[in-house]
From TrEMBL:
<dbReference type="GO" id="GO:0008964">
    <property type="term" value="F:phosphoenolpyruvate carboxylase activity"/>
</dbReference>
<dbReference type="Pfam" id="PF00311">
    <property type="entry name" value="PEPcase"/>
</dbReference>
<feature type="active site">
    <location>
        <position position="131"/>
    </location>
</feature>
<dbReference type="InterPro" id="IPR033129">
    <property type="entry name" value="PEPCASE_His_AS"/>
</dbReference>
<comment type="subunit">
    <text>Homotetramer.</text>
</comment>
<dbReference type="InterPro" id="IPR022805">
    <property type="entry name" value="PEP_COase_bac/pln-type"/>
</dbReference>
<protein>
    <recommendedName>
        <fullName>Phosphoenolpyruvate carboxylase</fullName>
        <ecNumber>4.1.1.31</ecNumber>
    </recommendedName>
</protein>
<keyword id="KW-0120">Carbon dioxide fixation</keyword>
<dbReference type="InterPro" id="IPR018129">
    <property type="entry name" value="PEP_COase_Lys_AS"/>
</dbReference>
<dbReference type="InterPro" id="IPR021135">
    <property type="entry name" value="PEP_COase"/>
</dbReference>
<keyword id="KW-0456">Lyase</keyword>
<comment type="function">
    <text>Forms oxaloacetate, a four-carbon dicarboxylic acid source for the tricarboxylic acid cycle.</text>
</comment>
<comment type="similarity">
    <text>Belongs to the PEPCase type 1 family.</text>
</comment>
<feature type="active site">
    <location>
        <position position="554"/>
    </location>
</feature>
<keyword id="KW-0460">Magnesium</keyword>
Length: 887
């Protein structure tokens, strides 16, 4: 193997040197030397300097205690390397900012007036979820973020922190604290823990980042756009398969969110009061400002000539009263005067705007947006709720609950026995009147009581925080119109659905499997065919549809999944156009490519023409949240990428002519069909495959990790169909197979036959470019040599050899076909930055895989040393950290 040069980021060298110093100081010279030997021999093998079998890597000489320390060291290096790359914008794409997007559109004759017209009805929302692929403790992430802040300070040339510490020593101290911080959770996460983690990202990164971005976008647009980028959240509202999410969870997340955002406003108002020291002795005050000053009842002689400060005293007092009313206790910094609460965010914004207009009338540099402008933007964007909370539940639950409500109310004894037409007719009759089905004193099952409690808590949330607090109710496993009408029945129980007015919370179907995606246009056409639904949808102006990447991938493989999602979007567009309703697609993406991961910028640009139109929501899950939103800088970069991609996808002319679109779609139908058959034949048609998968990968051990509040499987079955998509993808990544991200593609490309057409498609089609780019990344992170060692864990080696042989051969076919189609001599040849990033990590992952395999053998053989279990869990943590988007 030829040696390949790996250019190392200077920040990685710097942080790696400090980590080495810490290992020497904290673990001793012997551990440092042994770790360094393993590292250097692994690097030499990866670079082709030494034959893979020529050097003893030294892993067998490690004691269990040394194994734990070594694994921690490699995990920390990978985490620091991730930090360094994020800081240097390794993942940033060219043009992934609004200013560049506006310029690019102008070059195509699309002026800023059209951009602003789009933004008038636009909505771009990253939605944080608690899906358990973040293996690191919050304490570890906090230290990592402090290092990022210190590195940013170092970039300025500073040698000291504001507190007088030497910057380099402060960084080394944080690394030492990381070394001494237990990386694994000892207790399983609860919903409240997941809520607090998400709120930390919102408070520390997203809250300050978004208003600052809007300031930048105003300059790029030469106009003030509406607040079209907002925040979404599932944590505390997503009940699908999580019995721990109850009405109290809903109340808790909303109250804590309000506490977070109102606390932010109070801090900003306090700082603003210090800043706006304008005196009437040096110029008259605006009439509206004077009115606010008088209404504040601030009688301090020191502020008698400072109407802005007195006005802010009153605004602060009213915001503090709002905090008291919603949160239930006084804020940390009490108000100087007593005042009535704000009844809505709009009322608070109106007072702030009055201050801004007063400054504008005064003219000069003081009239700029500044801190006041950012606070106004924050109130517009975050309201009193911070992030819109989604409700989600499985359609099967709704069917059972509605059936019980109908039976107890004496309306229908056996709703579940009705066919679809009968259900729709019955539900429509019920929804024509305002009478709820539930009544006091009735006896219901625990499931029904819990679902009713959730709905009543949602109604309470609307009264407390406003309708923006909860806007959609997602229906997992949605297959029919009755699935959506059942949600309306439940909403009516709490007054959230009124005949003639529609629902205060939108019922949103989630189409997940390949069959569901194919059926989605028919379901939505039938939905809009109901006159009462069409009327309400036109009044609202839009209807959301969610499409799921994870289950469609597990169902049909990577290529068929992404193609089915693409085709569903294209097929839905005319249905919405006929109904006169804007379509809003909600993309349920995960971190791994097998769950829709990869570049959000490229993914949005690859959407079918006419399916974005300024409105898109995307889930952000697990370890991706820390990577994208761990710091204010990374949060700003990723929000900017989403916004700019949305502008380009909405306004740029289609990349393909209708004729080319038709030709390429026909080809993709054939390719997808072949890939689907190959994938289904392996995963669902091969005898013993589920046993092979569970024994080859660390799935049983992953299921025991304390990384989420919900179980790994939907049922107690060991069928792959019942396994959640996250452990399915995560397990294959640990074993370095990455099967959900590529299997079936190679066979499909090879059998297609028309290489010239494939190459034309890759050159011209953003969809296929993004699809193959993600696949290429997955292939580069997989390793069939290491995967073969994992296959050695399977008890039936004859079966393992046969199944793994098919996987290995398919990997090589996929590898060779991809290189041929993309005209490359090696993977990532055309993406040297990503190639270098992955090559840098591989030498640090390989020893971890070897150690994990050895520990799995001992664990499964019955050894009960607790260090073995800890070592397995630590290796899972370290490999996931090094691979990054593996869940």
């Amino acid at each position: 193997m030829a040696s390949r040069s790996i250019a190392q980021n200077p920040d990685i060298r710097f942080l790696g040197r400090l980590l080495g110093d810490v290992i020497r100081q904290e673990g001793g010279e012997a551990l440092f030397r042994r770790t360094e030997y393993i590292r250097s021999t692994s690097v030499d093998r990866a670079r082709g300097i030494a034959d893979a079998d020529a050097i003893d890597p030294g892993l067998d000489a490690l004691s269990l205690e040394e194994t734990l320390a070594f694994t921690r060291g490699f995990m920390l290096f990978s985490m620091l390397a991730n930090l360094a790359e994020d800081r240097q914008g390794v993942a940033a794409e060219s043009g992934a900012d609004v200013a560049h997007a506006v310029s690019r559109l102008e070059q195509q004759g699309i002026g800023r007036d059209r951009v602003m017209a789009l933004l008038d009805h636009a909505l771009v929302v990253p939605v944080l979820t608690a899906h358990p692929t973040e293996v690191r403790r919050k304490s570890v992430i906090d230290h990592r973020n402090l290092i990022a802040q210190l590195m940013a300070l170092r970039d300025t040339g500073a040698t000291e922190t504001p507190d007088g510490d030497l910057v380099e020593e402060a960084i080394a101290r944080q690394i030492a604290l990381l070394w001494r911080t237990r990386p694994l959770r000892r207790e399983r996460l609860y919903v409240v823990d997941e809520i607090e983690t998400a709120l930390a990202y919102m408070r520390d990164s997203l809250l300050p980042a978004l208003p600052a971005l809007y300031t930048r976008w105003e300059r790029a647009l030469n106009a003030r756009p509406p607040s079209f980028v907002r925040l979404g959240n599932w944590i505390g509202g997503d009940r699908d398969g999580n019995p721990n999410v109850l009405a109290d969870s809903l109340r808790h997340v909303l109250a804590r969110s309000a506490e977070t955002v109102l606390g932010h406003y109070l801090r900003e108002l306090h700082a603003l009061g210090a800043e706006l020291s304008i005196s009437t002795e040096l110029g008259p005050a605006d009439e509206a400002v004077e009115a606010l000053a008088v209404a504040s009842h601030d009688e301090s002689p020191a502020r008698a000539d400072e109407p802005y400060r007195r006005a802010i005293t009153g605004i602060y007092a009213r915001t503090a009263a709002t905090y008291q009313a919603i949160v239930g206790r006084a804020p940390p910094r009490p108000a100087a005067t007593v005042a009535e609460r704000y009844q809505s965010p709009q009322a608070l914004r109106a007072d702030l705007v009055a201050l801004a207009r007063g400054l504008a009338r005064g003219g000069g540099a003081a009239a700029g947006g500044g801190a006041l402008g950012r606070l106004i933007r924050a109130v517009e964007t975050f309201g009193f709720h911070l992030a819109t909370l989604d409700l989600r539940q499985n359609a099967d639950v709704h069917q059972r609950v509605v059936a019980e409500l109908l039976k107890v109310a004496g309306v229908e004894a056996d709703y579940l026995a009705l066919d679809e037409a009968g259900r729709v007719a019955l539900l429509r009759r019920e929804l024509a009147g305002p009478r709820p089905l539930s009544f006091p004193g009735a006896e219901y099952s625990e499931e029904t009581r819990s679902e009713l409690d959730i709905i009543h808590a949602a109604a309470e949330a609307h009264r407390t925080y406003g309708r923006a607090a909860i806007t959609v109710y997602l229906i997992s496993k949605a297959e029919s119109v009755s699935d959506m009408l059942e949600v309306h029945i439940l909403l009516r129980e709490a007054g959230l659905y009124r005949p003639g007015e529609g629902a205060a919370i939108m019922a949103v179907p989630l189409f997940e499997t390949i069959g569901d995606l194919e059926n989605a246009p028919a379901v939505m056409r039938e939905w809009f065919g109901l006159p009462e639904v069409a009327k309400a949808a036109r009044a609202t102006g839009w209807q959301e549809v969610m499409v799921g990447y994870s289950d469609s991938n597990k169902d049909g493989g990577y290529l068929t999944s992404v193609w089915s999602l693409h085709q569903a979007g294209r097929a839905l567009a005319p249905v919405f156009e006929e109904a006169g309703v804007r379509m809003q697609l909600f993309h349920g993406r995960g971190g791994a490519v097998g769950r829709g991961g990869g570049s959000s910028f490229a993914a949005i640009l690859a959407q079918p023409p006419g399916t974005v139109n300024g409105r898109i929501r995307i889930t952000e899950q697990g370890e991706v949240i820390a990577a994208k939103y761990g710091t204010r800088e990374s949060a700003a970069a990723n929000l900017e990428a989403m916004a700019s991609a949305t502008l380009l996808a909405s306004l740029e002319p289609p990349a393909l002519s209708p004729a080319d679109q038709a030709r390429f779609a026909e080809a993709m139908d054939a390719i997808s069909g072949t890939a689907f058959t190959a994938y289904r034949d392996l995963v669902y048609g091969t005898e013993g495959f589920r046993t092979f998968f569970r024994q080859m990968t660390p799935l049983p051990e992953i299921a025991g990790l304390k990384i989420g509040s919900r179980p790994a499987s939907r049922t107690k079955s060991d069928r792959i169909e019942d396994l959640r998509a996250i452990p399915w993808v995560f397990s294959w990544a640990q074993a370095r197979v990455m099967l959900p991200g590529w299997y079936g593609v190679g066979q499909a490309l090879k059998s297609f036959g028309d290489m010239a057409l494939l190459r034309e498609m890759v050159e011209a089609w953003p969809f296929l470019q993004a699809t193959l780019a993600n696949l290429e990344m997955v292939l580069a992170k997989s390793d069939m040599g290491l995967a073969k060692l994992y296959a050695g864990l399977v008890e039936d080696q004859e079966m393992a050899g046969a199944i793994f042989g098919r996987i290995r051969d398919a990997w090589h076919v996929t590898h060779d076909s991809l290189l041929s189609v993309t005209r490359q001599t090696r993977l990532l040849e055309k993406n040297p930055v990503l190639e270098n990033s992955i090559l840098l990590r591989l030498p640090y992952i390989e020893p971890l895989n070897h150690l994990q395999i050895a520990l799995l053998r001992r664990h499964r053989a019955g050894e009960d040393n607790p260090h073995i279990r800890e070592g397995i869990e630590l290796s899972i943590n370290a490999i996931a950290t090094a691979l990054r988007n593996s869940g």
